[in-house]
Structures are given as C-alpha cells and as structure tokens.
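Complex 349.
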Amino acid sequence: MFVPAEDRYDAMTYRRAGRSGLDLPAVSLGLWQNFGSADPYETQRAIVLRAVDRGITQIDLANNYGPPPGHAEESFGRMLATDLRGLRDELVVTTKAGYRQWPGPYGEYGSRKYLLASLDQSLRRLGLDHVDIFYSHRFDDLTPLEETLGALKTAVDSGRAVYAGISSYSARRTSEALEVADRIGLRLVVHQPSYSMLNRWIEEPDDDADGRSLLDVLGDAGLGAVVFSPLAQGMLTSKYLDGVPEGSRASRGGSFRPDFLTEDVVGHLRALAGIAADRGQTLAQMALAWALRDPRVTSVLVGASSPEQLDENLAALHGPAFGDDELRRIDQHAVDAGINIWAPRSSDL
Ligand SMILES: NC(=O)c1ccc[n+]([C@@H]2O[C@H](COP(=O)([O-])OP(=O)(O)OC[C@H]3O[C@@H](n4cnc5c(N)ncnc54)[C@H](OP(=O)(O)O)[C@@H]3O)[C@@H](O)[C@H]2O)c1
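Predicted structure with NAP bound:
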C-alpha cells in the first residue's frame, strides 16, 4: 500500500492562483505524454506517486491525453482508486476539452454539447464525481464565447467542476472571455498557456488587448497562469546538447518535431546551460526557476518520463534568485525558437 511521505508539504512551495482562494504547487505534473497504453503502468505509477510524495498536488489531464485519447485519465483513475484512495481531497485534478476526442461534429472545439459530454466522459474514466478545474482547451472562433463559457459555468454550477479555466487563449480573446464570464456570472480562476525560455508569447504586448500582454491581462483580472511545456518538451534540459538520444521525445516523432533542434537553437541551449552551470543548476532547473520568476505565473506544468526527472526538476525551487545581470545574459539566448505548435490552433485566432 502506498503511504505518502509525511513531510511532503514541507519542501514544496505553494503559490496562490491569482486572486482566488486556490493554492497550487509551484511545480505541477501533467500527463499529456508517457501515460499512453504502450507506456508501462508501473512507470506511470512511479512518476505520479513520486510527485505526490514530493508535495505536487496538481495533476493535469485532458480528455485526449494518451494515446489512445482518454488513456491517461483511465490510468490516473486506476491510481485514484488504489494507491491514492483517501487522498482525493489533497489533490487538484484537472481536465480539459477542446481538441478532437471522438468523430463527428460534436467531438471537438467549444460547443456546449461537446464540452459537457466530454466532461462526463472524463469523470467516468477518472472514477470521480468532480474535477477541480475544467478548462476550455482552446479558443474556438466559430462558437460564441457565451456558449463555451456557459458550458463551463454549468460544469461548475452542477458540481462537476470546482473551478473553471481557459487554455491557449490570446490576450485579446482572454479579455473578451473575461467580459463574457463576468456577464454570465462565471469566475475564471486560471489560464493555461505555453511558456518557456524559447516561447515567450505571453510576455508580448497585444494591440488588440490595449497593448497588454496575456500576463498583464491575467494579472489585472486576478487569474493565475499555469504554464505548460516550461522545458519546451525537453529542449531546455541537458539531453539535446549533443544530439538526439534514443527514446527521447524528439526521437519518437509527434509533437516534438525534429526541425525544432536547429544549430542556432542548440547554440542558445548550450549558452543557457553554461549560465545555469554558473548558478550551480542544471539547464532544466534554471529554465523552471526562470519561468517562475514572475509572480503572475502560479505554477510550471512539467511532464516526466521517469521519477528521477521529477527529482531533478523539483530542485529548481531551491536555487539562487536571479540577478539583473544574469537575467540580461539569459535574455540574449532565451529567444523564440518557433516551437509554439498551439498558436495556429488557438492563440493566433
Ligand atoms: N493546455 C494545453 O494545450 C497543453 C499542451 C501541452 C501540454 N500541456 C500540459 O503541460 C504538461 C507538460 O507538458 P510537456 O510534457 O511538454 O512539458 P515539459 O516539461 O516542457 O517537457 C517534459 C518532457 O521533457 C523531458 N524531461 C523532463 N524533465 C527532464 C529532465 N530533468 N531531464 C531530461 N529530460 C527531461 C521528458 O521527455 P522525454 O520523454 O524526452 O524524457 C518529459 O516528458 C502536459 O503533460 C500537459 O499536462 C497542456
């Protein structure tokens, strides 16, 4: 039987999500990859139990995580029913709907029909009667925001979700969503955008949001940012400094396209690894600490293919603070690497 470490909450930092009442761990675990049917259950279990043992309270899911879609929820549901039985209320379990989950016109995007049916399916796979955060996974420019956000409100009002959030909405679409949410009496608590040293779009001023960046919009409205892929899918670790190792995400094909690793990008990674070494950190640790330097970022949402990766990454919380000079050195290499694969499907719309 799994008995979680008694001191698990001592070493973790919890940060308040915007102006809500919800504290989230500074590092959260996502089950997007490595939780498919071809990934050994024992490895999945070891990763999640290590996370729980280290005070990671937020486990991030979506309907489509697998493969096949839904498998990550089933797998985590199995853990909730066994090892994690009794810990449900110590965890923040999230899920999302927005990407293709089943065939036909009701299996993706932002309609009320899709979102509520998907949430019910997620709850069944997880074996839960509610999730803690239900997200609209992407902006849908063909569905009125009133409908998408109305479905989130129904999810919350019916007790199927405790909080609601949006993911990968641009600064402009987020301000629009906030207005609509206000009008219909829905409180959005978190936004989940991609963000890393190689993908800094959430810092950029947006003319369509009064010149504010997404981070500004979130800060003004009191939403927390839970940022995903803070290691740029593994690029911001030491693993790709000398080629593509066998078994790594880049070697598997899929969301990490081989053309991301240009000579130019690898040059920046090496320079960043040098700065990290001067700070007594690994590149992964510095990348996570850097993403957390802005208090509007509530949590960095990492993935892991082993418990050891999680251990390395969690040490990011105990590194030195950044000096201005260091941040300037980092800025020279923390440049856009063209890796925001979510932009054309959401934040560019
Ligand atoms: N809202 C959305 O649209 C959206 C989109 C994407 C992700 N997300 C969420 O964000 C979570 C994290 O995304 P992500 O997995 O792309 O995050 P990430 O933390 O940037 O990348 C994680 C991957 O990097 C490698 N890695 C991690 N730590 C390492 C270390 N210390 N040393 C060497 N390699 C390391 C592992 O890949 P290897 O297999 O190479 O070991 C790991 O699976 C997802 O699980 C999901 O919950 C949300």
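The mean pLDDT is 97.
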